[in-house]
Amino acid sequence: xxxxxxxxxxxxxxxxxxxxxxxxxxxxWPAVIFFMDGLGIRPVMWEMGQRLADxxxxxxxxxxxxxxxxxxxxxxxxxLADPAARAELMKIVTGLDRDRKISDAAAFIEFLSSRPExxxxxxxxxxxxxxxxxxxxxxxxxxxxxxAVASFMGAIWRPISRTVLISSSKTSAAGSTSRAxxxxxxxxxxxxxxxxxxxxxxxxxx
Length: 206
Fold this sequence. Notes:
By secondary structure, this protein is of the alpha/beta class. 31% of the residues lie in helices and 29% in strands. Strand 3, helix 1 (43-53) and strand 4 form a beta-alpha-beta unit.
C-alpha cells in the first residue's frame, strides 16, 4: 500500500507523519510507532517503514522535528563529514528533551487509538540511535500501552525509566531463546553494564 500522509495534533503543534500498512491482507493490525533517527525524515525512513509494515503491522513514522517547520532531507554522508553541520544537528537532537518526547508519544498513542484499522490493544515502538532512545522513553512513560519495544543503538543508560515492559512471546536475539510473555526487563544503572548486556535485536508482537 502506498505511504499515507497524516497530521497529528500535539501539545506543541501539528506533526506530519507517514502511515504504512502491509502490502497484502486487511486489518486491524497491531500498530508500531517507528521513531526516526537524528538525521530526520528522508526516503530511507519511508523504505524502512514499509518493510516493517510488511511484517504485519500498521506503522506510524512521525516527524519529531516538526517544531522546526519544514526542512530538506538530510544527506548523512554530507552532514557527518561537516563539523559545523554535525554541531547544528546535535543542537536539534538535544532540543528534543524528555518532556517533548513524552508529550509527543501521548499524542501518537491517541492518534493510533482513533484509527479503525489499528488493533488498539497491541502497540509497539522501535527506533535507531536517537529513535531508539525515544522508543524506550515512550514505553517507559506509558508501559500499559506497549506490549513490545526495541531500541537499536539507543542510549539505554540515560534516565528514561528504570523499567520498560517487554511483553512478547517471540523476543529474540542471535543465539538466544524466546523470552516469556509479560516479562519485565530492568535496565542497568551504568553505561558499562548496559554496553555489555545482550539486548534483543528483533521483537514480534503476538
